[in-house]
UniProtKB/TrEMBL annotation:
Signal peptide: none annotated. It comes from Oryzias melastigma. Residues 27-83, 252-286 form a coiled coil. The keyword Ion transport does not apply. Microtubule inner protein (MIP) part of the dynein-decorated doublet microtubules (DMTs) in cilia and flagellar axoneme. Forms filamentous polymers in the walls of ciliary and flagellar microtubules. Keywords: Cell projection, Cilium, Coiled coil, Cytoplasm, Cytoskeleton, Flagellum. GO terms for cellular component: axoneme; microtubule cytoskeleton; nucleus. This is Tektin. Microtubule inner protein component of sperm flagellar doublet microtubules.
Amino acid sequence: MDQTLQTREGFSPVNVAGTLHQSERFRAECKELIKETKQICKRMQEDENQQFDQKLRGIQFLKKELELKLEEMILEIDDLVVLQSRVTKALDACKEPLEVTELCMKERLKRPDSERFHNEVDSELQKEREDLRRVASLLQRVTEQISEQLRLNRSAKHDLEKDLKEKSEAQNVDNFCALMHTLSMSLQHRPKTHPQPEPSSAVTLEQWENFSYANMAKAERQKTNSRSLQALVQSVLEQTAADMQKQVQATNTALQLNIQKMKAAKHQMEDELVKIQSEISNQRKTREDLQVAVAENEEFLSLTQAKLSLRHERPGKEQWRDPAQRKLITDVHKITEHINQLQQEVARSEDEERRLFHCELRLQESIDSKTNCLYIDEVVCMQHREAVVIQNF
């Protein structure tokens, strides 16, 4: 009866021993499971730390590369800004020479009609104006190209800075994650729900690396383009300055030669004017001498005619053509011819004086014209051009 009761109520010694054994085995299994899970968690944390360390090294490497490219791009931008300032100054430096050139061309239009012919100075001034306008137009296009390259450089710089910022943020997050452990993790960092799935925008390692490499490649392209543009602009600045200096010198030389020619011509005409004026004076003296000779011959003619008239009073038989009578008649004819000849020479002398006077007027007009041209070229133009100094840009 007792045995039946014990069996029915589960208190059999055999069952108790089995239960104890099963419980002990379960505890041992749990202990082993705990040990295994601890080891697994430790290995997982070590693997995580290794992955974080590898990721951080990758981020640090890319950051250094990005920082290097960013520094290079900042230097390129600074160099381009300086170069743009030089081009702007060069463009401003074209304004005054162009104004002076156009002023000289305008002033030279004020020359007298007799001197307003196209000469070497006009040709050089036209070349100078064309060159200055061409240089100004070229420098304006260069300024626009530099502005566009600066825009591209700043765009590449912005991409590098944004990438660096994101890399720094990711580095901070991963650094924090690498330092976290179960005891140090505060409650605010414990997940309140189940782990969230990866965002749809997650990228692969290759995409992650290629994104930064693409930014660096873009920056490298713009750096190459920027340096090519700088070399081109430097060459343009040197060549345009040399061209302008050469043309300004050519115009100045043409002006100086023209001034020398005009001075020589003016001096020659002044010498000729002195000779003409001297000849006019001599011609007047000659005419006065002729007029005196006419008067003297007229007096002699009157005397001879008076003698002839007086001889008509001789008695009839005495009025024959004796040698004295014939001599008086001959003298009257000769004196009359002399007077006529002298009067003709007086008229010719007056004609000569009129021609000399007209020549004097023309010479004086030419001298005045040369004086006017000399004032325009030597005083007005050259003084204005003294301020034109083409420096190296």
